[in-house]
Amino acid sequence: MSSECPIHDNYKQALLKAKDNSTTVTGRSQGAPVRIIKNEMAREYLKLEAQGADREELEKITLGGLRRAVIDGDVVRGSVMAGQVCGQLKEIRPVADILKSLYEDAQAILKKAGEIEL
After folding, report:
1. How far is CA 57 from the centre of its chain?
2. Is pLDDT of 118 > 90?
3. Which pTM does this prediction carry?
């Protein structure tokens, strides 16, 4: 996760705290599935969705949810979108450091691959 990413620090911290089982999928009943961090908003949505709530009722819960999370930092009532991979996030670093690390790791793998006789 990069320090330059323009999302609220609360959102970043929620991602750092997340585990591989910290997400859930909402919106399946509406044909618009979205994976998000489990929070109060997600639990309320899933409960109503299981009860057969219509689109309008479900939208009342989610309307403005992404803005609440990304801009306002409300990770309890906001929509904190994240994939299951969020459980692998361990730190916030400058993007230059992330790219340098990726490059160096790739170089090491390629070097090792060149040493293997097929």
Report:
1. 24
2. no
3. 0.86
